[in-house]
Amino acid sequence: MQLLFTILLDGLVYASYLFIVAAGLTIIFGVMKILNVAHGGFYAWGAYTAAYFIGSASEMGFPDWFGFLIIAGSALAVGIVLGLLIERIVLRRLYDHEEILIVLATFGVFLILEDLILLIFGVNPYFAYQPMVALGSVEMGGIFRDVYSLTLFGVALLVAAGSWWMLTRTRWGKLITAVIHDREMALIVGINVRRLFVVTFCAGAVLGALGGAYIAPTVSVAPGFAVDVIVLSFAVVVIGGMGSIPGALIGALLVGLLRALAVHKLPELELFVIFLVMSAVLIVRPEGLFAPAKARKI
Amino acid sequence: MKPNLLKLACVFGLAASTALNALPAAAKEEFKVGIVTFLSGPAAGPFGVPGHQGAELVIEAINAGELPAPYNTPGFAGARLAPIFVDEAGGNTKQVAEYRNLVQKQGVDAVIGYISSGSCLSVAPVAEELKTLTIIPVCGSPRLFEEGGKEYVFRTTGHAVGDGVAAALYVRDKFGDAPAYTGINQNYAWGQDSYKFFDLAMETINPDTKASDNPQFPKLFAGQFGTEISTLSLDKAPLVHSSFWDGDMEAFVLQANVRGFFRQKTFISTLGASAVDRLGKGFPEGVVMGTRGEYGLLVRDMDTPLNRWFVDHYKEKYGEYPLGPSYQYAQSILALKIAMDKAAEAVGGFPGQAQVIDALTGLEWDSFGGRISMTLGGGHQAVHPVGYGITGWNKDSGEPVATDVVFYPANCIMPPEGQSGIEWLEAGMPGASC
To answer: Which of A31, A152, A165, B395 could lock A200 by a disulfide, CB 3.0 to 4.6 Å apart?
Structure first.
């Protein structure tokens, strides 16, 4: 029972992490049909910005809870600034080109973002553990858990609920749904698709940066640490169905829980489990578990 | 008559070639050396940059003749060393291409470098093919010399077998009554080999301490270890072995520390000492820490002229203490100087590569941390004592310290010549004099 509880909790925490990093990727793909490889760059920039300012704030004697404001601020600032710049400078010129070309362009942007990090922050790692230490630990199921990683669960729920509310309960959401369903028809009825693209890309970038900023206190923020995130979030998004928020949620839960089970009972499988799930889903349902329905054009 | 002429020609040829081999090469003002270390990626901060700094400091000092005696003659056999620094990041294929580029296009006289086992195992055969002197300062895989002898490749530091055996000996001496052990190591050759060596050494040295059936092997650079920390916490084994060495070490320590992991378990880290300085007060006390030799944290206070010079000058130049890789890179540079000076003295002029190789084979010298002997791998593989200590915090100086430091001699922790690490450990470490 203790083991089952631990597996469940570990799985949920890891799934929350996966969902937060994958949500931005799936939103951008859903609306813009762009597989945004630069997502890893947003993640890294979010993490570096948060780590840098949390470290500085700690040195200047700010209280540890201030770190949470920095995390939110870093995610917003990085997402909006980088999102706007990349959309304006790179993507806007490529919307009429083939998808593969846009993927390559976002890959180029990712490399530039990585090199800019090396240029600005150098190669030494940054630490921002103050918010994690401030929250301390709590005993659950016979072992100690850090409260900070349990809050990941709350952040993931907030992102999921926020995206759901935004897409189904707001005017912007309805416009976005119209674009997802049929871009040409949306254009014909007068929806400003270009403006929606800017908003969507920035929202996706903010989510990517939030993933990095929130994870920063738990890791050594070092060059190249975001490469893995692209692969992980891509796998989760493929499992759930590209462009689907509920799909990313289910995909993250599936992978998170199965990975926790593997680590506890069959550690040899840990490395492989995410790709095992991905392969199984692709065989049974190649479009992913929750791919949005597509209207067939005649 | 003809056969005799042929014989004569052969004898003459042999004599001429021997004589030529013993003759000094044309004197050089500059000796070009490619220095390869991680300058980007997750291994740059904890390993690559300290290695680069250690190399740079010692090259500048040797070129200027400013090392303490007996190494205070300027240059390498009188020549100034001109380093070409190359980034080790990018994978094994890239490293092989970079190596060829260094030798064939840039015309370096020697190469010093490689931290990752993957890189050194990939590059070594190419070094043999291109017949270029290559000194490896850090890479820890014992396979380097177990998979055939090398003529041009040297390693001036010990390898992972010594890390594992010394850790098992430290457990015997300090935690002899521990009932069981487990481990968390990265899921690639380095992590798996390291745990295997420790596991086998424990079987021989501490047969009453049982191995857990659930050691953890997370993915390299996984970054998130929450589930693994839970698994290790639920495991009854009080000892946890780890060969984490890069950003993963720092991430694991941050995540485990806040969960009180280090108060419940004795964590044995074979190579994670970089994290001690980086995290400062954030690093837990009571961790068993190794540095693969007389390097870094474990010898910080060792009062020999060479060590004092190295620690003081390093701290003055870079504003931080030298770490294990700083010592190891500096040591390789020093080995090259000693071998070149020795070869120059033997030939009475600037030595050729063959003469430097002869001088380096089986060399023994006093390095910054201690004495190094090239006794294994046909005189190409160094041995030296390997030790462990326990991390602590000095409130007065506001710096991390290591207490209870114990070093184990090389003939107790390394396999004998001609036997692989695994064979030796599986046979119960025959001939080890501990």
So the answer is: A31
